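tl;dr need the bound structure. longer version: we got a ligand (5,6-dihydrouridine-5'-monophosphate) that a collaborator sent over and nobodys looked at where it sits. i said id run it. heres the input, straight from their email, havent touched it
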Amino acid sequence: MKKFDINEDPHRRYNPLINEWVLVSPHRSKRPWQGQNESISKEELPAYDPTCYLCAGNVRANGEVNPDYKKSFVFENDFAALKQEPIDFQEDKNNLFFKAQPERGISKVVCFSPEHNLTLPEMTVDAISDIIATWQKEYTDLGSIDYINHVQIFENKGSVMGCSNPHPHGQIWAQSSLPTEVEKTQANLQAYYKKQGTNLLQDYLHEELKLKERVVVENDHFAALVPFWAVWPFETMIISKRHITKITDFTTDEATAFASILKQLTTRYDNLFETSFPYSSGVHQAPTDGEQHPEWQFHMHFYPPLLRSATVKKFMVGYEMMGESQRDITAEKSAQMLRDLSDVHYKNK
Ligand code: H2U
């Protein structure tokens, strides 16, 4: 019988963070593509767009005027997904099929820079550090509101990801419940902590740093890697080396190192297909429920949809919807491709 070769044979990999499997089909990565191609805009954006609702000094959809901001700028989303007002509600515990519960929260938009055409990889480490300081402040301020138990910091980049505006920005949704992905992750982190007495992501990172085959880039305080169980072709995670449960635990050096690795990783992403690389990214960290959370380890996920060029996107359809996630190119191959790229942005070469 043929001996299992992880680089050639179809196999499943386990994701201990969410207790799910992904089907990997390495032999399939050379299949021809005759499907949809995304249109990539080659249009050079201006540094200021008078029609952009996020540019400094411009009027937003609700009539408010943005200040003449110079670094990052935060405002409450004018079309917020969550509302702050408390709602009177009695749960009907006997209702098996029509469960619903009110959800309170606050949604904010974080403009990363007043410059309309500047994305993370093209910003200075100083400018990215300012965004990190903003995330820290929001995590503290929102997290200290008594009914807010979770603060989700995220970025949706590129029209392929449904982002409505190229102006560099992210969002923060803070709410009373743990959202599903976080709840699943927390349950698995807690179970591991209880069983092993150690932190799952610290132990995992320790092993990855010994092997190095999935590490894309690292510095003294963080490593960016393609997780063994990655689903998206060029999915990565940035994990803190020290046991840090939340963004406000960073030392000054760690904050700078995080800004630096964000720049290095996103630069490699842009260099991969010489395009402004689309992705959804988000920080996963301890909830703000007032409890100690030693099971958490600060990390950031990047889920980019592009597969083999600037225009070919991976679709999560068919088997993925009905069965489980599937990928062709292995995590090791993706990591090697990203690792072999330059830290210098292609536009500056
Ligand atoms: P996305 O393109 O990633 O969806 O982010 C834009 C957000 O900005 C979106 O959530 C908000 C939208 O509700 N927005 C405002 O709050 N005010 C505006 O004037 C336009 C857009």
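gonna send this back to them w/ a short note. The chain has a mean pLDDT of 95.
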